[in-house]
Write a structure and sequence with these properties.
2 domains, 7-stranded mixed sheet, binds zinc ion, alpha/beta, Rossmann fold, Luciferase, domain 3, single chain
Amino acid sequence: MKLRRKLFASKDPYDCTRSQLFLDACKENYGHLISHCDDYKKISEGLGIKGVEDISAVSDLPVIPTMLMKQHDFRSGRYMVMATSSGTSGKMSHVRFEFGALMAALRMSIKVTRYHGIMSFKPCRYIVMGYKPHRSNKTAVAKTAYLTTFLAPAISRKFILKHTAEGYKPDFEGIVEALRKYEKGKAPVRFMGFPSYTFFLFRLLEERGLSFKLPKNSRIMLGGGWKQFYQEAADKETFYKLAKKTLNIDEENITEFFGAVEHPILYTDCAAHHFHVPVYSNIVIRDPDTLEPLEMGKTGLVNLISPLCKATPILSVMTDDLGILHDGSTCPCGVKSPYLEIVGRVAPEDIKTCAAGAADILQGVKV
Ligand SMILES: [Zn+2]
């Protein structure tokens, strides 16, 4: 996996000049998958792709739907770590990572978080608006939220979702109590986790007439379920306004992440809140009926591509998201690569994601 190493060693995480290297790294990954996973080989042949010579663009790679991954456990090599999607109905994808994939992911995380100024050596206090790690929870969303607490040295970690005998329960009172204490200290506070819980906390504070002046450089980081949240609960403007009002955190100190267990690439929003496509991945938007690639600006199914992993065939996966790829060259942030906008899901009533699960829990919480 020489080409993967080269790609993930790119100096600039948004370097637009590496598309040939990207394609070559995908071909390298494809070559591994067809020789190490019979199911993948069969799918590939079924699509009329018999070998590397049939691939001249990233959109030619065989596409595996994430829905299929939830029903069938694909394997394509030895692994060290496994993550699962947060399917509430018992159906979930299993994604396995070998050592090389973990190293590539680590390099990517360092480059991207450094680029966005999220990495810091200043010790801080973490408030995780998500799951407290527990051996029963193998979801990627719990793992990544926990990993994020290493981006700056942690003095302490407080989790809103506690594991109880009846499953996970949110502890808003514990967070309010912690805020009272942290406000008096010097260490910045970093929030990480579900936007829905974070927003719910803002509303709770506002209703009680509480506001905190958190120490300088405090941040809010969001991930793992913003789509549902922005459609149903609040627009971004309201979210940013409430963050300022209740926690004194400015818009520029609010960062969002986007990713999926079947596509573990770190998308981080820029100053203009766009999810630019980094050098490690490509996105093809496809016509929902014909699956043909669509041009920029058109709405279609989101096909995510990355040669990150060898142990699971997640080279090119089709999500059930509907999205638009926008031309990024005019974005005021300076990054030139296209950016992704998620506009909805194909069949929202059938799909229960972690966001939906979180929304269910929220309904039972009285403010
Ligand atoms: Zn931008």
